[in-house]
Amino acid sequence: MDKNFISLFDYLGKPAGPELGKRVSEYAISKKTPYSIRPISNPKYQGNVMLYPREFLDEFFRLEIEPDLDELLYKEEKNNK
After folding, report:
1. Which of 22, 24, 50, 58 is the most buried (most CB within 10 A)?
2. Is 47 helix (H, G, I), strand (E, B) or coil?
3. Rounded Cα gap, residues 52 and 55, in angstroms
């Protein structure tokens, strides 16, 4: 796997949650961005996570900076406790 592919968790330093994950996935599909999948198994999450090129995530978050982005992350953090 290309070392420049990274999960949202690794990029953000915290869980992104399903809502933000869906928005990133939809944007990746619209841009025909390559991706990879990594299986994860830990006490908080078991399943597959999507990996995207770091440059793609930089672009997404540069364009997607919205007031509700922090709210989405906060809501997920609160739900994961």
Report:
1. 24
2. strand
3. 8
Q: What are the beta bridge partners of residue 39? A: 48
The answer to whether the predicted template modeling score (pTM) of the entire model surpasses 0.90 is no
Phi and psi at 3, nearest 5°, equal -70, -10
The structure tokens listed for 13 are: 């330093």
Cα gap 33→72, rounded to integer Å = 23
Tell me the chain's radius of gyration from C-alpha atoms: 12
pLDDT of residue 79 exceeding 60, the answer is no
Given a contact cutoff of 8 angstroms between Cβ atoms, the answer to whether 8 and 27 are in contact is: no
| Six token digits for residue 78 | 């609160």
Domain ranges of the chain: 5-79
Query: At which residue do the structure tokens 């690794």 appear?
Result: 10
